[in-house]
Automatic annotation (TrEMBL), chains A, B:
<dbReference type="InterPro" id="IPR036206">
    <property type="entry name" value="ThiamineP_synth_sf"/>
</dbReference>
<dbReference type="GO" id="GO:0009229">
    <property type="term" value="P:thiamine diphosphate biosynthetic process"/>
</dbReference>
<dbReference type="GO" id="GO:0005737">
    <property type="term" value="C:cytoplasm"/>
</dbReference>
<dbReference type="Pfam" id="PF02581">
    <property type="entry name" value="TMP-TENI"/>
</dbReference>
<keyword id="KW-0460">Magnesium</keyword>
<feature type="binding site">
    <location>
        <begin position="198"/>
        <end position="199"/>
    </location>
    <ligand>
        <name>2-[(2R,5Z)-2-carboxy-4-methylthiazol-5(2H)-ylidene]ethyl phosphate</name>
    </ligand>
</feature>
<feature type="binding site">
    <location>
        <position position="149"/>
    </location>
    <ligand>
        <name>4-amino-2-methyl-5-(diphosphooxymethyl)pyrimidine</name>
    </ligand>
</feature>
<comment type="function">
    <text>Condenses 4-methyl-5-(beta-hydroxyethyl)thiazole monophosphate (THZ-P) and 2-methyl-4-amino-5-hydroxymethyl pyrimidine pyrophosphate (HMP-PP) to form thiamine monophosphate (TMP).</text>
</comment>
<comment type="similarity">
    <text>Belongs to the thiamine-phosphate synthase family.</text>
</comment>
<dbReference type="InterPro" id="IPR013785">
    <property type="entry name" value="Aldolase_TIM"/>
</dbReference>
<feature type="domain" description="Thiamine phosphate synthase/TenI">
    <location>
        <begin position="14"/>
        <end position="201"/>
    </location>
</feature>
<keyword id="KW-0784">Thiamine biosynthesis</keyword>
<feature type="binding site">
    <location>
        <position position="116"/>
    </location>
    <ligand>
        <name>4-amino-2-methyl-5-(diphosphooxymethyl)pyrimidine</name>
    </ligand>
</feature>
<dbReference type="GO" id="GO:0009228">
    <property type="term" value="P:thiamine biosynthetic process"/>
</dbReference>
<comment type="pathway">
    <text>Cofactor biosynthesis; thiamine diphosphate biosynthesis; thiamine phosphate from 4-amino-2-methyl-5-diphosphomethylpyrimidine and 4-methyl-5-(2-phosphoethyl)-thiazole: step 1/1.</text>
</comment>
<feature type="binding site">
    <location>
        <position position="97"/>
    </location>
    <ligand>
        <name>Mg(2+)</name>
    </ligand>
</feature>
<feature type="binding site">
    <location>
        <position position="78"/>
    </location>
    <ligand>
        <name>Mg(2+)</name>
    </ligand>
</feature>
Amino acid sequence: MSAELNKAKIDVSLYLVLDPDLCGGEAAMVETAKIAAQNGATVVQLRAPNWKKGLWLQCAQQLKAVLAPLNVPLIINDHVDIALAVDADGVHVGQSDIPVQVVRQLIGPNKIVGLSTNNLANVEQLLTPEIANCIDYIGVGPVYPTSTKKDALPVISSAEMAAMFASTGSLPAVAIGGIGSGKIAPLIAAGADGVAVVSAICGQADVALATRNLGAELQAARAQSNAN
Amino acid sequence: MSAELNKAKIDVSLYLVLDPDLCGGEAAMVETAKIAAQNGATVVQLRAPNWKKGLWLQCAQQLKAVLAPLNVPLIINDHVDIALAVDADGVHVGQSDIPVQVVRQLIGPNKIVGLSTNNLANVEQLLTPEIANCIDYIGVGPVYPTSTKKDALPVISSAEMAAMFASTGSLPAVAIGGIGSGKIAPLIAAGADGVAVVSAICGQADVALATRNLGAELQAARAQSNAN
């Protein structure tokens, strides 16, 4: 499995991380995911750290049912067993979760594995072939202050963020943390391949419009970045 | 796989459920498990609901290393992925966790699967062959008030407990919840195949002595129960 093959697995352009509380419960969250996927979200992650795993499984099954027909991958945060049980498209883990080598062994070669990074050292540790072949993309964050992740690390400085994006090689890198309307351009300019959002979609009065607006802002930021 | 074959998989006589806080941290917990297993504990469960899964994995690996040479099975609470990653002997789930049919599919036919039950209806739901073939033992509890499980359900009445034990057929049933010195005989008399303990071993000044004393009390209770 080469890094180029990995890269083809996932489009991180507009990456929705679900929040059941912001969405207003499980059913509303599934509906949010569906509308976002219909309006430009390129990947959806289920993240519900306070849930029992019976609810995780049930909701993951529902998300898979609405996302698969739209060809939008479903990523499960932390729990490889839930991903295996619903045949999800992949798993996202943090630095304190199951190590990516173990995740890859459990989930097999064809699924997507993502890893959160918070500093340049985190990224540099991924550049050995053994590790790079275990992951398909990285999250870089938090890039802004965030209120939706209780155990969030310190915000990454602009300089370190740019160094992190410059160090990822061909591995797709998605910025995360406090990203919303008006905040995308600096991240794309710094080298992000995409942006992950939570509250900019979850709980918005018009999820379709919010998603389309974020997509338009992303396209404009890319055009501006390419022109420079 | 018949229920009789399942029964041979596990001896629930003296079932230790670990608590990292009571033990005083990860290293002390592994040592507690080792000493308990050397002194009569017949099975050990790792349960750490507040831990990140990197620590779960690391500790499960350490527990497997000390328990396997003693032929004492290691059961992982909730997380099938951790059990798969360390090739643990089994998984224990509650009513709100991954359903036992899904656990069985993920973990394969040869591992131990246990399920918590809190009332007679929970037990009666297990008596269809489809479900019975997915589990190897049940937990029945809480049989006494407990402080070590924050989301514990109401204590089961003596009458309901006896009905539950009478309904399990050949499935081993272990009583759990607030069990310690002096509290074992009524449970064995009511039909329990074994007792699960937390604070009666975790955090005890002399883990070896505490475990041996519980084992002696269990044997005496069984002798008394057989004599009646």
